[in-house]
Amino acid sequence: MKKTIETALEMLVKNSGEGWFCILEEPKTEKFVQFAYDEDEGIFFDLPRPALTKKEFESASEVLSGYDITLSESQVPEQSPEHNPDCDCGCDDDECDCDDGCCCSHGEPFETFNKHLGNDTQLAGEIAYAVMREVYKLKENTKLNVTIMR
Fold this sequence. Notes:
The protein is α+β, with helices and mostly antiparallel strands. Helix content is 25%, strand content 28%. The chain has one domain (2-77, 113-149).
């Protein structure tokens, strides 16, 4: 897993321009970490709170505080889907009245762990590995799906 993470991040920073992102995902559970990248700003770590269970959130708060990463508020992009069909909140339309923290946020602000990391692929790799091992409790030999897109 560690080598997959390192290789993915090295590939990410070899891209030119802006608007790149990388998602590292365990395919069975769909647990993930994501990074954005552009030449001027470098690497941006992002782990949305709605993607975490309560136990994972508590663990992430502890683990990520060691990297000086805290929770901040983010906005769902307008082009994102109105409703996540995998959400188990029970709503099925655009008029969702879900409680705060629902995974289908409907364009409302949500909390996320994030931090600009410059071009430090080593630090980005350490953070991703810590989330996979200590937050998601995945084994070292777990295979990850890697998506790098613009």
